[in-house]
Amino acid sequence: MISRIGLYFSSKYSTMLSLENAKKLAASKAVDLHVNCGDLIGIGSGSTVVYAVERLSERVKADNLRVKCVPTSFQARQLIVKHNLPLTDLEIDRELDVCIDGADEVDCNLNLIKGGGGCLLQEKIVASCSKKLIIIADYSKNSKKLGDQYKKGIPIEVVPMAYAPISNKIQKAFGGVLDLRMAVKKAGPVVTDNGNFILDWREYNQDSDWDKVNTTLLSIPGVVETGLFINMASKAYFGMEDGSVKIQAP
Ligand SMILES: O=C(CO)[C@H](O)[C@H](O)COP(=O)(O)O
């Protein structure tokens, strides 16, 4: 089901909305509609989540909203701390009301590619402990099939010593190309918050049964988690170029 929440910006924004403004629009709308006083919230990772935390912080100050936040990454933890929001974890709070997170791509069935920022493992754990996963994104993330928009590949977090045989196994089972994600401003590969490597899987079959593929990938020894979030999202909010918010629900 897809719906639109009217035009929020008048003449001032009559030109096309930038990606940053679209992210902000989606993030604010999702926080306003899905966060209630007393909630335990999972805080996702990435550039769109920055706007969600800013909106949360505004509501805490303006409306005396009481919330506690569980981060999905080092970046998310820093955001929570920067905005003086109460920090908690899954040892203390095991079931969360809502998790708000970004995505690299959202298909027409609300299946997601995540992990472009390398934080997929903790994101998936926190989302799995939340009653609902709300996705916030700009219009460029909205697609029909996984791979239509996001061309960098499906991120797969792996134990470092196993990255080469895992690449071979995936290539043999499903085809495509696997790249070991390399760091920028550091020699060698990206090392995740959990001390693992990331393989980005490109040129896969876009018509795959993603649930099955995900299960098969997870059965390979050394695969820690995949960036395929299948049947996990409750709703996605997209900030659109025309200043509206598109809501996608199952
Ligand atoms: O999965 C993620 C990080 O690992 C992010 O949610 C995803 O990459 C989207 O990020 P952004 O909001 O910057 O577009």
TrEMBL record:
GO terms for molecular function: ribose-5-phosphate isomerase activity. GO terms for biological process: D-ribose metabolic process; pentose-phosphate shunt, non-oxidative branch. Pfam families: Rib_5-P_isom_A (PF06026). One of its GO terms (cellular component) is cytoplasm. It is an enzyme of class 5 (isomerase). It catalyses: aldehydo-D-ribose 5-phosphate = D-ribulose 5-phosphate. Its EC number is 5.3.1.6. Keywords: Isomerase. Pathway: Carbohydrate degradation; pentose phosphate pathway; D-ribose 5-phosphate from D-ribulose 5-phosphate (non-oxidative stage): step 1/1. Belongs to the ribose 5-phosphate isomerase family. This is ribose-5-phosphate isomerase. The lineage of its organism: Eukaryota, Metazoa, Ecdysozoa, Arthropoda, Hexapoda.
